[in-house]
Design brief:
This protein is an alpha+beta fold. The chain has a single domain (about 1-115), classed as Helix Hairpins (Orthogonal Bundle), CATH 1.10.287. It contains three helices and three strands, in the order ααββαβ. It has helices at about 1-30, 35-65, 90-100, and strands spanning about 70-75, 80-85, 110-115. A three-stranded mixed sheet has the order 1-2-3, sandwiched between helices. α2 runs antiparallel to α3 (about 90-100). It is elongated and about 55 Å long.
Length: about 120
């Protein structure tokens, strides 16, 4: 399981780093308009907020016993990967509660995937 969680985490952080790198190159480009640069800055701020929210959710999940979880927030959805063979309805409700409290994602847009080796 540990390998899968590490894989999901690395894939997620690699994607985020690439997005931030692309936005930073737009911000640093002297040939672009201030409006284009401003848009890139706004997108970078939004990515940072999203990343902070994902970490908050993961931290809260850890306090509830889901110590190896990876959360990926989309515009109106969330993917949650947890280290568990199975999840009870109570577990799913607990995860959904944490995600909905910390984000604007509706419960029906949360995909929870238990992974266990």
């Amino acid at each position: 399981m540990r390998i899968l969680v590490v894989f999901f985490t690395l894939a997620f952080f690699t994607s985020c780093a690439q997005n931030k790198e692309t936005l930073q190159s737009i911000i640093d480009n002297t040939e672009l308009s201030e409006e284009e640069k401003s848009d890139a800055v706004a997108q970078m701020v939004e990515l940072t907020k999203q990343s902070e929210t994902e970490m908050e959710i993961e931290t809260l999940m850890a306090t509830k016993g889901f110590s190896e979880a990876v959360v990926s927030l989309g515009e109106d959805s969330a993917d949650v990967v947890v280290n568990a063979e199975e999840l009870t309805d109570a577990n799913r409700a607990q995860i959904e509660d944490i995600v909905t409290r910390k984000s604007d994602v509706k419960p029906e847009k949360i995909v929870i995937t238990p992974i266990h080796e």
